């Protein structure tokens, strides 16, 4: 699709399942109508293309950085990418581009009646990464990466995830809610089902 955003990235840190990690990779980030791409200035193996449906979370950091959490639709392995941009303006442009990308590709709940029989209204999201080739090579060489089991996270793990998100999520000043104008109890009669 048509490019929405292109920014130059000072460095990127890619973390795959807390095992495979690349740090300080300079490159360019692109957001098109269909996907997010990171193209390394160094080697192809660091290039990443992520379809919109695979992006689970994106957040803007205080220090001109953007955080992405994504995973392939049929895989439990969660990957994280933190991009350190050269300016606050580039950071804002990338964040807005990602927000637009996500809004153009809503993900519907599996319980939604409008879903197809497999519960996948939007199809199979694709994730293409040069780094994944290296992971496959490591597995072929007998270096097994830790496999995540399908078990639910513990309360401590959930709290650690929430703490991590709180540390990277930033509400821009123009979107902050001013508590001074709120009235105590103004939402007491709200329908609980909508909350």
Automatic annotation (TrEMBL):
Classification via Gene3D superfamilies: Pleckstrin-homology domain (PH domain)/Phosphotyrosine-binding domain (PTB) (2.30.29.30)
Protein keywords: Cytoplasm, Nucleus
Pfam families per the UniProt record, alphabetical: Voldacs
Chain residue ranges for the region called Disordered: 132-195
Keyword Cytoplasm appears in the UniProt entry: yes
Entry GO terms, CC: cytoplasm; nucleus
InterPro entries: ICln/Lot5/Saf5, PH-like_dom_sf
Ranges of compositional bias, category Basic and acidic residues: 143-166
Primary location recorded for the protein, binned into one broad class: cytoplasm
Subcellular location: Cytoplasm; Nucleus
Protein name according to UniProt: Uncharacterized protein
Source species: Cyclophora tenuis (Marine diatom)
């Amino acid at each position: 699709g048509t490019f929405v955003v292109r920014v130059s990235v000072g460095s990127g840190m890619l973390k795959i399942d807390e095992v495979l990690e690349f740090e300080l990779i300079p490159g360019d980030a692109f957001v098109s109508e269909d996907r997010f791409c990171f193209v390394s200035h160094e080697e192809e193996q660091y290039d990443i293309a992520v379809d919109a449906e695979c992006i689970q979370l994106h957040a803007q950091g205080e220090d001109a950085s953007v955080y992405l959490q994504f995973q392939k639709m049929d895989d439990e392995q969660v990957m994280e990418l933190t991009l350190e941009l050269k300016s606050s303006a580039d950071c804002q442009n990338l964040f807005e581009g990602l927000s637009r990308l996500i809004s153009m590709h809503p993900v519907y709940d599996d319980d939604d009646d409008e879903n197809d029989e497999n519960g996948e209204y939007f199809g199979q999201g694709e994730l293409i990464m040069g780094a994944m080739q290296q992971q496959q090579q490591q597995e072929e060489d007998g270096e097994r990466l830790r496999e995540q089991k399908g078990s639910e996270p513990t309360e401590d793990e959930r709290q650690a995830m929430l703490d991590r998100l709180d540390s990277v999520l930033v509400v821009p000043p123009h979107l902050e809610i001013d508590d001074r104008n709120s009235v105590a109890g103004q939402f007491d009669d709200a329908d609980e089902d909508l909350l």
